[in-house]
Amino acid sequence: MNAPFAAGLAAAMLLASPLPASAGDWVPAWMASPQPVWSADFLFPTDVPATLGDRTVRQVARIGIGGTKVRIRLSNDHGRNAVRIAAAHLARSTGGMTINPASDRALTFGGEAKGTILPGASLLSDPVDITVAAGEDIAVSLHFAEAVPVETFHWDGKATSRLVQGLHVSDTDLPLGETITQRLFLSDILVDAPEAKGTVVVLGDSITDGAGATLGADTRWPDFLAARAAPRGIAVVNAGISGARLLSDRMGTNALARLDRDALAQPKIATLILMLGINDIAWPGTPFAPGEPPMTFERLTSGYRQIAARARANGVRIVGATLTPFAGALPGTPLEATYHSTAKDALRQRINDWIRTSGTFDAVADFDRLLADPAEPARLLPAYDSGDRLHPGDAGNQAMADAIDLDTILGDTP
């Protein structure tokens, strides 16, 4: 056998080798879309430290589907500097910052206890053997031994995390420290779930991110949907970002820019639910975006078509959600006078009619009709309103999740 042929055969044999056992059948059980930390001149403060050094952060997340192995993804997507993880642990939470010590697992990255998240990159941990169930609370503890800049985070975490001085990743309970409601670096928890039929990603703004939901109660509408879907073997994850827009950046990158990372790259993705556009319509002319021209029907529908086309090109089912009423939104804030107008609501209604009838989407979730006050359709029904006339409260979120038809969400799935 000549040498070039032998070398080619060896390469072919390597390519044909079976995947290692750790390859698994991974699905996302929880996610928090990464956002860039914005400057101090923005309307909202970030409320996170600029740097972390010799500190441990413990973050608790409720997973939407169970499995037999777990791994996490850490994101430095918007970072300009490397982030070094000195130690990372995962365990079952028993409430608050307390963990079950018997479930504590040290995480590794390529077999090493330490890991580095390069600028603009993410870092996936090795799998750990631990059987977890849908609805369990998982605590992820990260230690940063040296000063690292916080340039990537998720602003509206809807849960309380704790920062403490020193190395405490395996402590059953944490000492007192600083509490935050943002997510730091933790972007995904994945589980090995061979029986999972597919993943549903909800790409949205603050309504999906849970701005009106009770803090720490896991009552965002994708949370309720995940609980309904898990017994069917369907994973549901929340790719909402408060302040997100379809076509523009600020509190997060625009949907067209983050579509691949937050949705299409998710393991076993089968369906994308798109609920974006209110901020595109409402922000121009407000303190959020005082110099922006009004949104147009043509620009917004072009963006929707592009999302739908890219989803279908990847074999992903696309569900369009209508935009909910927001007349009188944000009373008592600097946004009250300019966030809503008759012209903005007319565009919202025109967009909703297009979502329902254009055929752009495989299915439609008509949240507008579900949440509108029949006596005044430009406003949220008071029973579903969180109180700010923009974001649904817990009851509204439950109604939204209950309105999704699980028999058709994955298309041909029985």
Task: Explain this structure.
With 414 residues, this protein is α+β, with helices and mostly antiparallel strands. It folds into two domains: 24-188; 197-402, SGNH hydrolase (Rossmann fold), CATH 3.40.50.1110. Helix content is 21%, strand content 29%. It is built from nine helices and 26 strands. The strands form seven sheets. Strands 4, 7, 8, 9, 13, 16 and 17 form a seven-stranded antiparallel β-sheet that branches. Strands 1, 5, 11, 12 and 19 form a five-stranded antiparallel β-sheet that branches. A five-stranded parallel β-sheet has the order 21-20-22-23-24. Strand 25 (372-373) and strand 26 form a beta hairpin. Helix 3 crosses helix 9 and helix 4 runs parallel beside helix 6 (297-313). The longest helix has 17 residues, at 297-313. The radius of gyration is 22 Å and the shape is globular.
**Roughly how many Å apart are the termini?**
53 Å
- Report the sheet-strand fraction: 25-35%
Give a quick account of the main beta sheet: strands, pairing sense, barrel closure.
7 strands, antiparallel
Which regions contain 5 or more consecutive residues with pLDDT less than 50?
Answer: 8-13
CATH-defined topology of the largest domain = Rossmann fold
CATH class of the largest domain: Alpha Beta
CATH homolog superfamily of the largest domain: SGNH hydrolase
Structural shape:
globular
Helix content: 10-25%
Structural class: alpha+beta
> What's the assembly state of these chains?
single chain
- Count every beta strand, where a strand is a DSSP E run of 2 or more residues: 26
CATH architecture of the largest domain: 3-Layer(aba) Sandwich
**How many separate helices?**
9
The residue-averaged pLDDT reads 94
Q: Radius of gyration from the CA trace?
A: 22 Å
**Count of individual domains:** 2
Protein name: SGNH/GDSL hydrolase family protein
GO molecular function: hydrolase activity, acting on ester bonds
Keywords: Hydrolase, Signal
Pfam families: Lipase_GDSL_2
